[in-house]
Amino acid sequence: MRHCIYPGTFDPITYGHLDVLARAAKLFDRVTVAVAHNAGKGPLFTAEQRLAMLAPNLAPFPNVTVTTFGGLLVDFALTQKADAIIRGLRALSDFEFEFNMALMNRHLQPKIETIFVMPNEQFSYTSSTLVKQVAKFGGDISHFVPPNVATELKKIFSVPVSPAP
């Protein structure tokens, strides 16, 4: 049974992430979405909140599970008995970072392969960072994230109106 890890911060999950996940779910018998704790990136949501936002969007994928992890990804992949790590490449600008990461992971654990997939071109410019910026300023994010995620972003960025004196 072929098993891959789809790691990420997923802060928050976007339709681009779900597109990569759908591709992974077709290629592998089992996919584990691994939400990185990664406090160094300064996530907007806790790992538990990101996990909760992901879970309802996994229904179309019976071969997918979700969990959190910390530490080295290749160590996590080994403990999960995974064959591969899957990563999405939106644009050429993603390639250099992902390529270096894949080479380091191969150096650390040669048994774990990294596979790159490209999401549908309609998601090539979508990133969690951009979605958060648009949400922060009240823009429409419904084309970029599932409804439950849009709701959570609106809660975070809603500014209560104080009553007039």
Topology readout:
Layout: E1 3-8, H1 15-27, E2 30-36, H2 47-54, E3 64-69, H3 73-79, E4 84-88, H4 92-108, E5 113-117, H5 128-136, H6 147-157
Parallel strand pairs: 1-2, 1-4, 2-3, 4-5
Question: How would you describe what is shown here?
Answer:
The protein starts with a strand and ends in an 8-residue tail after the last helix. The protein is α/β, with parallel strands linked by helices. The protein is 39% helix and 18% strand. A five-stranded parallel sheet has the order 3-2-1-4-5, with helices on both faces. The chain contains six helices and five strands. It has one domain (3-123): Rossmann fold (3-Layer(aba) Sandwich), CATH 3.40.50.620. It is globular, with a radius of gyration of 17 Å. The model has no long low-confidence stretch (mean pLDDT 91).
Note the main attributes of this structure.
Rossmann fold; 39% helix; 165 residues; globular; 18% strand; single chain; alpha/beta
Which bin fits the share of residues in helices?
Answer: 25-40%
Radius of gyration: 17 Å
**Main CATH class:** Alpha Beta
**CATH architecture grouping:** 3-Layer(aba) Sandwich
Order of helices and strands: EHEHEHEHEHH
The N- to C-terminal Cα distance equals: 66 Å
Mean pLDDT: 91
Strand content: 15-25%
